[in-house]
Design brief:
Elements: E1 6-10, H1 15-29, E2 34-40, H2 50-64, E3 68-74, H3 83-96, E4 100-104, H4 111-127, E5 143-147, E6 157-160, H5 165-173, H6 176-179, H7 194-209, E7 216-220
Parallel strand pairs: 1-2, 1-4, 2-3, 4-5
Antiparallel strand pairs: 5-7, 6-7
Bound molecules: zinc ion.
Zinc ion (ZN) binds at residues 11-12, 15, 110, 113.
């Protein structure tokens, strides 16, 4: 059994980088083991192929410092909450047994994103059921954290990623078929527009500003955080 520290799920290869890449880099820098899990291979992408996307995602994982990157090979553009989709989540969770899991926020403009959130959430729950048979030991990670996609939420906490900002951008731009803000592309997409690429930075700058930092990533937890000593928590109300 692997017992890794952190597992991050994303619908498409590149979602994890955008949503929580800076925080993952920060955790990897601190010596924590990280596994990234993409749910589709990107065969519906306007540009690039499954092969180019695979090479790009491997390069990005290396920049982040992840020890492994898995792909559940669900249908791109048509992620559904099915028993088979959830089984793939259960299996990967039971292999790596992460302490903490990042997953996409359950509301998003892209159907793959909110469905990925549901598939992962339900899979995490099933992974803890003794009678759900995969030939592996049951396991349910208790720390489940949502990262932001297109729609915002009021974050439970914000991680300062000022020191990781440049490397996060490098990891995003490792997907050179997807994000390069370059007018020479034969077919422009929303993701290659200057506005979108500037927006990525603006978002991180906005959440950084809320905690007195240059850049930040906001996260949501559905439960409550237990605090033993408020003096050891870094926050400011003024
Ligand atoms: Zn996506």
């Amino acid at each position: 059994m692997n017992n890794v520290d952190v597992m991050a799920f994303g619908a498409h290869p590149d979602d994890i980088e955008i949503g929580c890449g800076g925080t993952l880099i920060k955790l990897a820098d601190a010596g924590h083991s990280i596994v990234m899990v993409d749910m589709v291979q990107g065969e519906m992408g306007t540009r690039g192929t499954v092969e180019t996307r695979k090479a790009e995602s491997a390069a990005a994982a290396k920049l982040i410092g992840a020890i492994a990157r898995e792909n559940l090979a669900l249908e791109d553009g048509n992620i559904r909450v099915t028993p088979e989709a959830k089984r793939r989540v259960v299996e990967v969770v039971r292999i790596y047994r992460p302490q903490l899991v990042f997953l996409p926020y359950y509301q998003d403009r892209h159907p793959d994103h909110y469905r990925a959130s549901e598939v992962v959430y339900e899979g995490l729950f099933q992974a803890g059921l003794a009678r759900y048979e995969t030939g592996q030991e049951r396991y349910r990670p208790l720390r489940v954290i949502y990262y932001m996609g297109w729609y915002e939420f009021d974050p439970t906490f914000i991680v300062d990623i000022t020191g990781q900002f440049e490397r996060k951008l490098e990891a995003i731009y490792a997907y050179s078929t997807q994000f390069k803000p370059d007018d020479t592309f034969y077919q422009q997409t929303r993701l290659t527009s200057r506005e979108y690429n500037w927006g990525i930075r603006q978002r991180m700058g906005y959440y950084g500003s809320l905690i007195g930092s240059m850049y930040g990533e906001g996260f949501l937890i559905r439960g409550k955080m237990k605090v033993e000593n408020p003096l050891e928590v870094d926050f400011s109300s003024f």
